[in-house]
Amino acid sequence: MSTAETPFAILLAWMLLAEWPGVVTWAGGALVMGGVILGGFGREAQPGSVPSKT
Fold it and tell me: Is 43 helix (H, G, I), strand (E, B) or coil?
């Protein structure tokens, strides 16, 4: 899942289904997005390593 997929999913649901997430949903989404963003900072490629195909 890309980092931009989650905000676009919220906008799509709002525009197509006229549903707006509640406060608890926003808080949970912020925690998940924060974890995804912070988790990406600690990963550096090792010299001579080949990227995985997953």
Answer: coil
Is residue 40 within 8 A of residue 10, CB to CB? The reply is no
Q: With CA atoms as reference, report the closest residue to 26 among 40, 2, 5, 7.
A: 7
Q: In this structure, is the dihedral angle defined by the CA atoms of residues 17, 22, 24 and 30, taken in order, positive or negative?
A: positive
Read off the pTM. 0.50
User: What pLDDT, on the 0 to 100 scale, is given for residue 1?
Assistant: 52
Q: How far apart are CA 30 and CA 24, in angstroms?
A: 10
Its sign, for the CA torsion 40, 46, 47, 51, is: negative
DSSP type of residue 20 = -
Cα separation, 20 vs 26, in Å, equals: 10
